[in-house]
TrEMBL record:
GO molecular function: DNA binding; nucleosome binding
GO CC annotations on file: nucleus
Alphabetical list of Pfam families matching this protein: TdIF1_2nd (PF21229)
This protein's name: Ubiquitin-conjugating enzyme E2C
Source species: Astyanax mexicanus
Residues in TdIF1 C-terminal domain copies: 6-92
Domain of life (superkingdom): Eukaryota
Length: 105
């Protein structure tokens, strides 16, 4: 986790991507999700820490945009994509629908 910051050349500025690209979908992992992620070594097993999952294609699209494509710190090899289980995917889809509904209001 956190690889998307480094991939876009934002190594030391966690959170900046969420402010700079507020329309980017991010899924806030709950305790069950974090447990699954930690078991598979996608994140450290630290309690209380916020963990966001982003969609790989969104990061790659950002990386190819005019804003990032010529960035010397761009390191897409830092991305560590993985597939989530169906039960987590369902939660992510619900969160995406809720996020879309908020934008429509």
């Amino acid at each position: 986790m956190g690889f998307h910051f480094r991939a876009l050349g934002m190594g030391g500025t966690r959170g900046r991507i969420y402010i700079k690209h507020a329309d980017l979908f991010k899924y806030a992992a709950d305790a069950q999700d974090k447990h699954w992620l930690a078991e598979r070594q996608h994140m450290r097993a630290t309690g209380g820490k916020m963990a966001y999952l982003l969609i790989e294609e969104d990061i790659k699209e950002l990386a190819s945009s005019d804003e990032y494509k010529d960035c010397p710190e761009l390191r897409l090899e830092e991305l560590k994509p993985f597939a989530v289980p169906p039960w987590m995917l369902e939660k992510m889809q619900k969160a995406m629908e809720a996020q879309r509904s908020e934008k429509d209001v």
